[in-house]
Structure formats: structure tokens, C-alpha cells
């Protein structure tokens, strides 16, 4: 953990609504300040996740995305603005986040990472948020998090539904993403450009990724470890499935 800081009066006022919370206090705010979160995918899910984590006082965010802002993104990717069309998503996002909280340290990775590069990037971070929209990238992120024993907060959304889970890979009994979906049997056609998405659905799931990240960092409440939460926007219902570690998983049981 970083050296303890003394929050000045302005910072205490800024974060006062969190600091006053039961089981949170100045200690929780300190833990957020010391945390380093990697967000992979700065689109519909990554936008609200990044916004809430920066606003809440997470000290360091690393944003990973090799795409640029397109007009069709603006319907749901609320971190970007119309004047950022054609700009790198990570640069666009950094601009918005620093306007919200200039004290947050933000690193930008504007490239597609190999497994080795990703493992190196996340080796000393607090946790990783998977906010991507395709199975190949999700499996790559999962492999890296299993290798480095880094907690992974994963969500996905399409059309009118979404899902979220936490894979705390520091724990021996934790399932990984490949325990939920087989790499051989996963359907690749899961992106919004082919199937559509209702804008608030990614907003809800991305905000929940931020919430689960904060709970994990501050060790408060019960995270979605060993659970998959499934959201149906049309009926406004949530369904919970229990997740167990797959003893035959080729990723986390090697």
C-alpha cells in the first residue's frame, strides 16, 4: 500500500458523502486513493465504470482501447463527446475523467495487447475491469488475470439484457471466466454493432462494475464472487446463478 496521505479540507468535503458511510470512513477513501484499476474497453460498459471510479477517488486508472470514437458510439458511450469523433477513445476518456477529478492519475494504452503485454501491464494492479464486447478478448483477459492472480470484474450486455460477475483470482476456490464459458463453444457474435443495445442497459451494468470494484477494493459487503447476476431490462428482473470452480477448466487448473 502507498504511504498514508492526509486529506485536506477540500478533499474531505469532496468525498464527504462516502466518508460518512458505515464501514467505509476515511480508511475506505484511503484504499480507493491507493488503488490502481485497469479498465479494458472504453465503450458502453467502460464509460460509466471509469466515470464513477474517477469520481469516487480511485487514485490510478489505466485505460486500454485501440479504437477511435465514432458517431454511432455516442448513443451509449457517455464518456465521449461529439467533438471527440475520430479521436482515440482512451484520450477522449482521459479528457472527460480529468475534468471530473483532476487528482486521478490516468494512463492510456492505445493499442491491442498480446497476452504477454497484458500480463506485464496488470502484474501489480489492484484489479481489472473487462468491459469488452467479444469472447476472444475476454478469454485473453481472463488468461492474464489467472496468470497474475488479479481480481477480474467482468460484464457483458447486448440488446435488452446483461450479466456481471466477479472472479477474485487471488482466492484458491475462485472460478475463472473460462469456468463459465468454454473457449471452444463460445458464440463470437455478441457485439452491439451486429445485435443492437439499449443505451441504459450498458449504463446499468457498467455502473455495477464500478460498484463491485469499490466493494472489492474497500472490502465491504459481499461481491459477486462465485455468482453470476443476469439482468433482463424488459421485465426489469435480476436472476442469480451460483458459479463454482470447474475442476476440469484448462485455464485455472493448469
State the main characteristics:
single chain; 254 residues; alpha/beta; Rossmann fold; eight-stranded mixed β-sheet; 10 helices; 8 strands; 37% helix; 18% strand; globular
Helix content: 25-40%
Radius of gyration: 18 Å
Largest sheet: 8 strands, mixed
Query: What is the number of independent domains?
Result: 1
Spatial order of the strands forming the largest sheet: 3-2-1-4-5-6-7-8
Mean pLDDT: 94
Helix/strand-derived class? Answer: alpha/beta
CATH architecture: 3-Layer(aba) Sandwich
- Strand proportion, as a percent range, falls in 15-25%
CATH class: Alpha Beta
- Spans with pLDDT under 50 lasting ≥5 residues? none
What does this structure look like?
With 254 residues, the protein is an alpha/beta fold. It is built from ten helices and eight strands. The longest helix has 20 residues, at 199-218. The radius of gyration is 18 Å and the shape is globular.
Give the structure's gist in a few sentences.
Helices cover 37% and strands 18% of the residues. The chain is of the alpha/beta class and 254 residues long.
Amino acid at each position: 500500500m502507498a504511504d498514508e496521505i492526509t486529506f485536506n479540507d477540500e478533499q474531505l468535503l469532496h468525498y464527504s458523502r462516502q466518508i460518512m458511510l458505515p464501514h467505509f470512513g476515511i480508511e475506505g477513501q484511503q484504499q480507493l486513493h491507493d488503488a490502481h484499476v485497469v479498465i479494458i474497453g472504453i465503450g458502453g460498459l467502460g464509460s460509466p465504470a471509469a466515470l464513477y471510479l474517477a469520481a469516487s477517488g480511485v487514485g490510478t486508472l489505466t485505460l486500454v482501447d485501440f479504437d477511435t470514437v465514432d458517431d454511432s458510439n455516442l448513443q451509449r458511450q457517455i464518456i465521449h463527446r461529439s467533438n471527440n469523433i475520430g479521436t482515440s477513445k482512451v484520450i477522449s476518456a482521459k479528457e472527460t475523467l480529468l475534468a471530473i477529478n483532476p487528482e486521478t492519475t490516468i494512463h492510456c494504452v492505445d493499442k491491442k495487447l498480446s497476452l504477454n503485454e497484458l500480463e506485464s501491464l496488470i502484474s501489480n494492479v489492484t484489479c481489472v475491469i473487462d468491459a469488452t464486447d467479444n469472447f476472444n478478448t475476454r478469454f485473453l483477459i481472463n488468461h492474464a488475470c489467472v496468470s497474475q492472480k488479479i481480481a477480474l470484474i467482468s460484464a457483458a450486455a447486448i440488446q435488452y439484457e446483461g450479466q456481471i460477475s466477479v472472479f477474485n483470482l487471488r482466492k484458491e476456490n475462485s472460478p475463472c471466466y473460462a469456468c463459465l464459458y468454454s473457449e471452444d463453444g463460445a458464440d463470437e457474435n455478441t457485439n452491439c454493432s451486429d445485435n443492437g443495445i439499449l443505451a441504459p442497459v450498458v449504463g446499468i451494468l457498467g455502473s455495477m462494475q464500478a460498484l463491485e470494484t469499490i466493494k472489492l477494493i474497500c472490502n465491504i459487503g459481499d461481491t459477486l464472487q462465485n455468482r453470476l447476476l443476469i439482468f433482463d431490462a424488459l421485465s426489469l428482473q435480476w436472476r442469480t446463478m451460483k458459479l463454482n470452480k470447474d475442476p476440469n477448466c484448462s485455464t485455472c487448473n493448469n
